Amino acid sequence: MLLFPDKLASLAIAGINLYPFKTFNITSLLEKKIQIDTTKLRVAFSTLGCRLNQAETEAAMEQFVSRGWTVVDFDKPADVYYINTCTVTGSADRSSRQLLHRARRKNEDAVVVAAGCFAKRAALELADSSEVDLVLGTIEKMHPFDHHDYLERPAKPIVKVFGDGDKKVHPAVGTRISGRTRAHLKVQDGCDHSCAYCAVTLARGKSRSASWGDILIALKRVKSLGYQEVVFTGVDLTAWGRDKPSGSKDFVDLVSLATDIGIPRVRLSSVEPWEITPERIERLLQHDTWCPHLHLSLQSANPKVLQTMNRLSDLGRLRESISTLLSAVPDATLGADIIVGFPGEDEDAFQDSLRFLHESPLHYLHVFPFSPRPGTVASQLPTDLDKNTIGKRAKLLRRAGQKQKRMHLSSMVGGIQEVLIEEGGEKGYTRNYLRVHLVNGEGKPQTRIQVKILELESNNDILAAEEMP
């Protein structure tokens, strides 16, 4: 039997999950004329979609590296191509297919892995494809070596998407392998909202929260790795804790926990707007570590459209929450996802979303033309909107969002901001998530410095700044 060195016998992801190395029959391998040299095994990763996917990719990446694999750029020759897919839109499905096709073209002998949401939804299609060797669902992708050794292509595609394994949510945090400045920490998975347009719930299942104790261990690991910022991620981050027996803690308490651990900057990924109440804003503001930046999964600012989407629509309270935040932190950054052209969206409904952008105000938008996802309620709804009308509305909303963003960036000129310096030393992000370029030299990566904002660069959305003496 061939065993890996004892010191590499297992790896603790976030200090919690141990993934022991598999053993291989050396006689069988020699018969196949395979010579194993883990220093020469190369794996390439590509991630589509949300920050949650990024955190999960980094956890998978760490498991490969612990077994002696070398991570290479996706455009380079590799022995394994691992694509963490997304199915939030039709465009995401197409991008997933394209990446899988690219991977197979690069190396006919490579093991091509389709993992995640699109992989689970399109498992039968992918199993019949000559381009994919391994299909892993949203649960199975967290344990890639439970399903294959990746030393050679399987005789036929392996499909593991049924979610019959461990459904417990394990906090996932990568090391410095990915080169990221911020640690993305998965604390929640799944969703209970059943929004009419969403296929992610079909892929991810019911809402599930990581335990308080597991998150505590993961945060200690984030701290020990030297990260200056942690980003809490989840499919529905604001649902964290609801499925726990006590029910006494919510997502705001996670900010408190990270603060107590000693992590200097704590950020929330995309949040449900209806859960961002004025009371929770007040609680968040009690922590100097909380980064004043909220990305809202709004989707529409018209009550009728929101009702058709099977979403809540307390826009009045949301406006109150935004006002509470901006009154306390005028520099805070607010963004939102908006779906354009959802069935039932007439011109008045579209104008409601446009007005909300200006009146709230929001500082940037992620605009998505409606894409009917197979298996969702929305895919069966009648609509009289043609692609041309939807495209025009999307263009108008994007243009308005870009104008708001430039105005927000310009309002920072002359002010002082804290910036977390990224790899390379020339750029970083402020606490309110604005991109900054240092014009007077380089900063030390992974350090927080005070800068003065000099100007908004004319050809991009980056603020030019100089380090304060």
Could you write a compact summary of the structure shown?
With 469 residues, this protein is α/β, with parallel strands linked by helices. Helices cover 30% and strands 21% of the residues.
What does this protein structure show overall?
There is one protein chain. By secondary structure, this protein is of the alpha/beta class. Helix content is 30%, strand content 21%. It is built from 13 helices and 21 strands. The protein has helices spanning 26-31, 51-66, 90-106, 117-121, 123-127, 200-204, 212-224, 251-261, 278-284, 303-308, 315-328, 347-359, 387-410; strands at 12-13, 17-18, 42-47, 70-72, 80-85, 111-116, 134-136, 158-160, 183-186, 188-189, 208-209, 229-233, 265-268, 293-299, 333-340, 364-369, 416-421, 427-430, 435-438, 448-456, 463-467. A hairpin with a 3-residue loop joins strand 1 (12-13) and strand 2 (17-18). The termini are far apart.
